Give the backbone structure.
Amino acid sequence: MRLTLSLAAALAAGVMAFPATAEDSQYEAALRRMIAETAAGTCPADIMGEGLLAACELQLPQMSAGLSSLGAIESVTFVRAEDRPGGRVEIYAVTFAGGQTLNWGIGGLNEGKFNVAYTAG
């Protein structure tokens, strides 16, 4: 029991000593593009998988209005990556010109297209 706790504490300390870095980030450019193009009223079909593209097109008027009201993207900060059954998902903190920061996820990359993109608010 004591050994298990010691190993767990050592592992936790190691993770904290090596936080996620921008080098871990792979999908930032695609996320920036998805947000910007959707705000401008277009779903980027060349980087969106079939299901994500269909959802984007269905919700485009509301999403475009909502995203454009936030202003331009000021900064994108990589938070972490998660391995999920559908593939890697990266989480970013996106700050807009209007001052709001939203957490976004993007992933499920398959044949050059993403199957997952969402905001966690």
In short: The chain has a mean pLDDT of 85. The chain is about 40% helix and 25% strand.
